[in-house]
Design a protein that fits this description.
The chain has 308 residues and is of the alpha+beta class. It is built from 9 helices and 12 strands. The protein has 2 domains: 155 residues, 2-Layer Sandwich (D-amino Acid Aminotransferase, Chain A, domain 1), CATH 3.30.470; 81 residues, no CATH class.
Length: 308
């Protein structure tokens, strides 16, 4: 059972979860895992990827991770890794909508919040002159309201200052799948698998396929996502993308590195440490264990806490 099917309004779900901010993280994580996957969470002898993600959330701490999930601050990390050329130019970063001069913005742009999670706080503006800017400002203001606890108890987002980021729009051809998103699953600094996402309509749907590191499409699916119907050709710069993903992920036991390929140019997307907050299901179920086999957990996290 997933409470999204019972409470369809996302804003209402978040308001309800906020009421339980006082409940300790381990308790909330166990409850959420049971509700969303139908299984009891095993942390002492975790085998599944989804189980190991819960441990990773609860007990592993590295302050660099907080910078890496901030869509503005991560740019500094990418530069330090020697990849400034893959950063998409930004228009600006703002503390609130009052700081934004909408008249000076380009006609096409992408607006998001710096701590967005789940891909819901992103709006692509293709024609500023035919966009309801009042509605846009209202939504952006809602995005950056202070929040004490991440609903999935992902500590990297807690108590961080959220801001509004305006990105340069990246054109793409919808007939070819739009802007194709390559999400590299890296463990101990090595790419093992990737999601390939195309035909995306933000906030509505996208097609997802799973590949191995050699770009062979695998017969596995995310149960909560639509399978990708089209076949995507292996990018000419795929090896360069893998090298980039591995270098960016190297300091961490696990990281998902998201990159785009626009006409042969690699563009950085984001770094995520807790894919789907670890609450997804795979079909067939064995892929959860295959990913889990790649994920070597430290006996204790950087905060010195042991798994329980």
């Amino acid at each position: 059972m997933d409470y999204k099917t019972i409470i369809k309004n996302r804003k209402l779900r978040l308001q309800i979860l906020k009421m339980f901010d006082f409940v300790p993280d381990p308790i909330v994580v166990r409850i959420q895992y049971r509700i969303k996957t139908g299984r009891r969470l095993n942390l002492k002898n975790a085998k599944r990827y989804t189980e190991k993600i819960q441990y990773y959330k609860l007990y592993y701490r590295d302050v660099i991770m907080q910078k890496c999930v901030d869509k503005f601050k991560v740019r500094e990390y990418v530069r330090r890794c020697g990849y400034e050329e893959i950063l998409n130019p930004i228009v600006g970063v703002y503390n609130n909508v009052e700081e934004i001069n909408f008249e000076s913005l380009p006609n096409e742009f992408v607006i998001k919040d710096t701590l967005g999670w789940g891909g819901t706080s992103v709006i692509i503006v293709k024609d500023k002159n035919h966009t309801d800017l009042d509605k846009l400002k209202k939504m952006a203001t809602e995005w950056i309201r202070p929040r004490r606890k991440h609903p999935g108890r992902e500590w990297v987002y807690d108590k961080q200052k959220n801001r509004i980021l305006i990105d340069t729009y990246i054109p793409s051809n919808r007939e070819n799948g739009g802007l194709v998103d390559y999400k590299f699953f890296c463990f101990q600094g090595k790419v093992r698998y990737l999601y390939l996402i195309a035909d995306r309509i933000i906030g509505e749907r996208a097609g997802l396929a799973i590949y191995d590191r050699d770009f062979n499409r695998l017969p596995y699916f995310r149960a909560d996502e639509q399978p990708l119907k089209r076949n995507i050709k292996k990018p000419d710069n795929y090896e360069k993308m893998m090298i980039c993903a591995e270098k960016l992920s190297k300091p961490f036991p696990h990281a998902r590195i998201d990159l785009y390929d626009q006409d042969g140019k690699i563009i950085f997307g984001e770094i995520t440490f807790f894919d789907g907050s670890g609450y997804m299901k795979f079909e067939p179920d064995e892929f959860d264990f295959m990913l889990g086999d790649c994920f070597i957990l430290p006996e204790t996290g950087s905060n010195g806490k042991k798994r329980s």
